[in-house]
């Protein structure tokens, strides 16, 4: 699939549920209203849509959410998708998770051909962890990481940089990640969805400042490691690991974008930072043959925008994009 700007689209991210067992302060409000079950695609429908994308050239599939591992029977979707790995049509099947259910599922994920996972942890301090996630327990996630290690899954840590919350701790986290053999990515807070009050302005911390601070303690050298995504990577000499910076607000990465995002209602977003979307649920349900859905996918890709419109500043108090990250899956 080629978009109007000549970008090759071979990466699909699928938010399999908008629900979550955490309520991270930058992601959700405490009282979220979730989608009615009837609007959500069944796991069979999600698998059919993924298969259509794979047929059109998608090589990498990431399941995310909400929390993907809290969706009932989610392993049946992983098992179904693993057949495309076995056939060679799909090169990578992976997920982004908060780690709360990893203890239960790590081995089964590995058995399905998952090799690498992203686990989101913003702090190694149990009290802060509770404050950030509202409902999460750090112990549970640590047990999940141990299970992932035991199952041979390669882990990358995702941490959102939060001013006045974890900024002083990111160096220790980087060292800790390196000691465990994990790469790490630090993410700048993105203005998505209402999370209450002026929280976002308070949380925003430019990664240029984070990098400057980390450089006092670590030797960071730019490397040409690219995933087609918004992360820019450096090598950390002291740990031998990689550190990525995801800076959607201060760095333009759109020219190399290779991805589209599917929500659990079958809505395809061609850009994380834009409202334009295509409904794939209707063509999917219209007929058992895939012709209509394939046509809808092609039509959507032909509308993929050149770039995003994120902005956080005092003149723009509301979120730049109304939907929460848990809808499109980050
Ligand atoms: N629940 C899973 C998790 O937390 O890893 C997967 C979904 S979560 C929406 C995906 C990633 O988006 C997480 O790493 C999370 O920290 C990040 N995220 C959520 N809201 C964000 C925001 N407003 N700005 C930046 N990153 C955000
Ligand atoms: Fe849940 Fe992930 Fe959002 Fe936290 S970031 S509330 S774990 S979806």
Write the layout of secondary structure elements.
Blueprint: E1 11-15, H1 43-55, E2 60-64, H2 74-87, E3 92-97, H3 102-111, E4 116-120, H4 126-133, H5 138-150, E5 154-160, H6 170-179, E6 183-187, H7 199-203, H8 207-215, E7 220-222, E8 231-236, E9 242-246, E10 259-262, E11 267-269, E12 277-279, H9 281-286, H10 291-301, H11 325-328
Parallel strand pairs: 1-2, 1-10, 2-3, 3-4, 4-5, 5-6, 6-9
Antiparallel strand pairs: 7-8, 8-9, 10-11, 11-12
Helix pairs in contact: 1-2, 3-5
Bound molecules: S-adenosylmethionine (SAM) and iron/sulfur cluster (SF4).
The site of S-adenosylmethionine has 20 residues, from β3, β5 and α11.
CATH architectural label: Alpha-Beta Barrel
The helix-strand sequence is EHEHEHEHHEHEHHEEEEEEHHH
CATH class: Alpha Beta
Estimate the strand proportion: 15-25%
Total DSSP E strands? 12
**End-to-end span in angstroms?**
22 Å
CATH topology: TIM Barrel
Structural class designation: alpha/beta
